[in-house]
Amino acid sequence: MILSRLIFNFNRTIVEFKFDFFLILSMDLSRITLNPDVCNGKPTIRNMRFTVTQLLELLASGMTQEEILSDYPFLEKEDIQTCLNYASQIANTKDIIPIAG
User: Fold this and answer.
1) Which of 38, 69, 79, 98 is the most buried (most CB within 10 A)?
2) 1 and 20 in contact (C-beta within 8 Å)?
């Protein structure tokens, strides 16, 4: 198992997340794109100016998948499922280590 690292500025504390890189690679995340020219490199859906975070916030607010697909016709059901899979893997970190604060 190879642990990979992501480093975020979280609540004014820089935090390092370690996760199983191979587990994420085994998932189909082709709909999640990282492009420095789109949304400042944040994870987006199919290189559109619609971030994974935006979609997750809609779901967290209580919108159903059907409501989201109706309000955002450029999204597809597979986009929602892929974002949920991506978020579950990011949340399933092996270690969370504060490295500065």
Assistant:
1) 79
2) yes
Yes or no: say if 17 and 93 are a contact pair by the CB < 8 Å rule: yes
Long-range contacts of the stretch 21-24 (C-beta < 8 A, 24+): 23/89, 23/92, 24/86, 24/89
Q: What is the pLDDT of residues 22-55, one digit of tens each?
A: 444 445 778 888 888 999 888 999 999 999 999 9
Domain range holding 28?
3-100
Structure tokens at 53: 């975070």
Separation CA 94–CA 2 (nearest Å): 11
For the entire predicted model, the pTM comes to: 0.68
Joined tokens for residue 40: 């400042």
Specify the number of domains making up the chain.
1
- Sign of the alpha-carbon torsion through 17, 23, 26, 31: negative
Instruction: Read off the CATH number of the domain in which 90 is found.
Output: 1.10.10.10
